[in-house]
């Protein structure tokens, strides 16, 4: 199956729009998790506790690379394949570079880590995205309207400063819905902290999957997110990511059970349609 098909299958099978972000911070681990394999052990237990509740996992590569834990990420990717073969994995890398370098980043994402999809910055244009789209069946989520306050610095700017022209994030949405998406592999990243912008992106890209971070620790509202992203039954899928609120629901030995409970609560909060009851 393609990434889009795998995502749709997981959403249906698990009745879930929840993506658990894997952002392992050893400083926040329970005291009993120590040693050179702590990052893998922590993430493994989170995955096993939540695999039946999610439609995707999203490991953030920086949290592994900062601790020289890329081999642990490779092992984790293999483990997820074994224990949750129906759950697609989105590698959160936010890469964005010239074509020849992007080719190497694509090898990293899809051949080294065997990810199903990757997050990308579209700032350098289509040729920086194309190397990822040469992998049949893989997906790519382009940063569009991000959840951080600084996103306004560029994403909300009107093109050319001319009244009536689209904002940068609107332009990205149109490109991803149209000329950049020949093989149907693209989605968009839109932050949960901006529900009005989610609705605007959905209007411009009615069929694309939206990856929505910012629910939980960043303050995004789960139900407002779903209402904005799914205005009609025909709208494209929405994948709502929560990381810290689930990973660190407990700092004790029961961290995995607490993560499961937090994931269950978030999954339930995301189940509003049909249709927008």
Furnish the topology, listing elements before pairings:
Blueprint: H1 3-14, E1 18-22, H2 38-50, E2 56-59, H3 61-65, H4 70-83, E3 90-95, H5 99-112, E4 117-120, H6 130-133, E5 139-145, H7 152-155, H8 168-177, E6 186-190, H9 195-204, E7 210-212, H10 222-229, E8 238-242, H11 244-247, H12 255-269
Parallel strand pairs: 1-2, 1-8, 3-4, 4-5, 5-6, 6-7, 7-8
Helix pairs in contact: 2-4, 2-12, 8-9, 9-10
Please, could you describe this protein's structure?
By secondary structure, the chain is α/β, with parallel strands linked by helices. The chain has one domain (3-269): TIM Barrel, CATH 3.20.20.70. Helices cover 41% and strands 14% of the residues. The chain is built from 12 helices and 8 strands. The protein has helices spanning 3-14, 38-50, 61-65, 70-83, 99-112, 130-133, 152-155, 168-177, 195-204, 222-229, 244-247, 255-269, and strands at 18-22, 56-59, 90-95, 117-120, 139-145, 186-190, 210-212, 238-242. The chain has an 8-stranded parallel sheet. Helix 9 (195-204) runs parallel beside helix 10. The chain is globular. The two termini are 32 Å apart. The mean pLDDT is 93.
